Amino acid sequence: MSIPVFEFHTSSACQYNNKDPRCVEVATNVPGKVAVRNTVNGQTVEFTAAEWTDFLSGAKLGGST
After folding, report:
1. Hey, which residues does 8 pair with through a beta bridge?
2. Of 19, 33, 42, 43, which one has the greatest count of Cβ atoms within 10 A?
């Protein structure tokens, strides 16, 4: 079984700056998975498609705890 190769894309809202390279990259090309990568250290976190959808829904609501 092969390991999926994620194709990361940076948001158009990200103002990438070589002096301060903090952006988040997202890959949605692997069916059923979403990967999020930190451009500073390269760390990647994977989510199921359902988890990502729930996250986006919550983010759009702007909820606070």
Report:
1. none
2. 33
